[in-house]
Amino acid sequence: MIFNASLATCRGFLVVLWVALIPLTSFAEQPVKSIAELDLSRYMGTWYEIAKLPNWFQRKCVQGTQAQYKILGPQKIEVTNKCTTATGEEIKAVGVARPHSSGQVAQLEVRFAPDWTAWLPMVWGAYWVLDLDPEYQLAAVGDPTRSYLWILSRTPAVSASQYERLLLRLKVMGFDISKLEKTRQN
Question: Could you tell me which of 52, 61, 23 has the C-alpha nearest to residue 175?
């Protein structure tokens, strides 16, 4: 009789646990969405990297990471990324961005490979604007797999309250914000 009561209690606990976890599992499977509207002309200019999820192509960058965007034509944006290494060397990468085939204005694709590789799908990476304040001063950019994430600002620093509010919104989107690395600016 004691065994049956323990088994029933165990089953009850597992059912409660399963029911409690349903919202978490359905949340984790929500697709990443970009913002609905983006005025590309307002988005152009210099952005300072405030934080990022670590990635292989920025492994040498230790400070001063910036991105510069410039419209070259109706379907082409120049992207210039630069940063400073531990030895003080400046690294610069120039690429292009174009609208994503989804037709969503805040979903772009970016390429840093040579022009002759543009026809290869694998040289293009997702660049989705996920969050943007109305004044175009603070943005979050990432990809639909949640593998990449950058927090960008028009200024080299943001207030702690702005940063924390943005982190909460990114967490709701399913990003692992505990892995974000803050970027030192000069």
Answer: 52
Span between the terminal Cα atoms of the chain, in Å: 71
Dihedral of CA 131/49/67/150: which sign? negative
- What the block records as the tokens of 14 is 């597992």
Taking only Cα atoms into account, the Rg of the chain, rounded to an integer number of angstroms, comes to 21
Q: Torsion angle, CA of 155/156/159/160, rounded to 10 degrees?
A: 150
Band of residue 141 on the pLDDT scale cut at 50, 70, 90: very high
Q: Please give the average per-residue pLDDT across 58-74, as a whole number.
A: 96
What is the tens place of the pLDDT at every residue in 33-49?
Answer: 999 999 999 999 999 99
Extract the tokens encoding 150.
Answer: 């950058």
> Cα 41 to the chain's mean position, in Å?
20
Rounded Cα distance between 75 and 81, Å, is 19
CB-based contacts of 98: which residues, under 8 Å, 6+ apart? Answer: 75, 76, 77, 108, 109, 111, 124
pTM as predicted: 0.83
In this structure, which amino acid lies at residue 79? V
Q: Print burial letters for 119-137: b (CB count within 10 Å at least 16), e (below 16).
A: eeeeebbbbbbbbbeeebe
